Automatic annotation (TrEMBL):
GO MF annotations in UniProt: ATP binding; tRNA dimethylallyltransferase activity
EC numbers for this chain: 2.5.1.75
Protein name: tRNA dimethylallyltransferase
Family matches, as InterPro entries: Dimethylallyltransferase, IPT, P-loop_NTPase
Pfam families according to UniProt: IPPT
Annotated GO biological process: tRNA modification
Keyword Aminoacyl-tRNA synthetase belongs to the record: no
Keyword entries, A-Z: ATP-binding, Magnesium, Nucleotide-binding, Transferase, tRNA processing
Assigned protein family: Belongs to the IPP transferase family.
Cofactor(s) listed in the protein's UniProt record: Mg(2+)
Enzyme class per UniProt: transferase
């Protein structure tokens, strides 16, 4: 089973309730929560929740290390087999669409890329306006231009990086995708949340992160030698707070950009879920009580399980 949805939609709470009802264990499906020392800015699941339900796939990498969708797919298959082998139910939980896609579609093996050249290129691109990056994508990978331009700076940057540093476009690499495993045939659960409610929850989350010590967390990472050009810290929150600590903006400006960037990310997630998920994905109305949501998901899982076994 996979439980997904836009940021702040309530995936953690629902997944804990479902996992406890099904004797399940959770596999993190979030591209940021794989990084060590990045707890507040990624809203990583709390120690209390980890005590209630075993979690897998957290804290796997340092912030300067890569973690691709392909690697997630391999790790997730291992966790799924190991959890299932003990008679428990694996639940994939998170909002990173490409991680979910790695389990349902063939993926390509990421070519080796020189880290120093990559970081230099990322530093250069960080100073370029979005319109210029979009022109680069159009010139380097016309087949991916529309998809990349619908996304954020990371998607644009990724398309440019692969084309310049491997000599082949990302579209070409995707066309070479293969898989030695059958696509997963499970239940995909999508949490639906009103956009205005998402915006309110995002604003509240950013305020909470600041109160819980996000600035101190980012400062500690910078002191260890990590920076916004590193894979783990290139995401929303760490990038803006690093700019504040570097004197490039006020704290209020940094938090304002965090809110704006997170709202845009949530909208991109909604678009991705609308176009990329299968027609039989189960949509959950999050305006209902948590108990009602969990009961519906548990019932749907048991029905799906019977159809697979049969």
């Amino acid at each position: 089973m996979a439980i997904t949805g836009p940021t702040t939609s309530g995936k953690t709470q629902l997944s804990i309730a479902v996992a406890e009802a099904l004797d399940g264990e959770i596999i993190c499906m979030d591209s940021r929560q794989v990084y060590r020392g990045m707890d507040i800015g990624t809203d990583k699941v709390s120690p209390e929740h980890r005590h209630r339900v075993p979690h897998h796939g957290l804290d796997l990498r340092n912030p300067d290390e890569f973690y691709s969708a392909g690697q997630f797919g391999r790790d997730a298959h291992y966790y799924i087999e190991e959890i299932s082998g003990r008679g428990r139910v694996p639940l994939l939980v998170g909002g990173t669409g490409l991680f979910l896609r790695s389990l349902t579609h063939p993926i390509f093996k990421q070519p080796d890329i020189d880290v120093a050249r990559l970081q230099a290129l990322r530093g250069f691109m960080a100073k370029r306006p979005r319109a210029e990056l979009e022109r680069w994508v159009g010139a380097l990978d016309s087949g991916r231009a529309e998809f990349a331009q619908e996304g954020g700076p990371q998607r644009l940057g990724r398309t440019i990086e692969v084309a310049l540093l491997t000599g082949r476009s990302l579209s070409w690499w995707h066309s070479q995708g293969t898989s030695d495993r059958e696509p997963l045939n499970g239940l995909i659960v999508v949490l639906d949340k009103d956009r205005e409610e998402l915006d309110r929850r995002i604003d509240a989350r950013v305020t909470r992160m600041a109160a819980e010590g996000l600035v101190e967390e980012v400062s500690g990472l910078l002191e260890k030698g990590y920076g916004p050009e590193d894979p783990g810290m290139s995401g929303t929150g760490y990038r803006e707070v690093a700019a504040y600590l570097g004197g490039d903006m006020t704290l209020e400006e940094a938090l304002g950009q965090m809110r704006s960037q997170t709202r845009q990310y949530a909208r991109r997630q909604l678009t991705w879920f609308r176009h990329q998920l299968p027609d039989d994905a189960m949509h959950v109305d999050t305006s209902r009580s948590l108990d009602a949501q969990a009961a519906d998901v548990v019932a749907a899982w048991k029905t799906k399980e019977r159809s697979i076994d049969g």
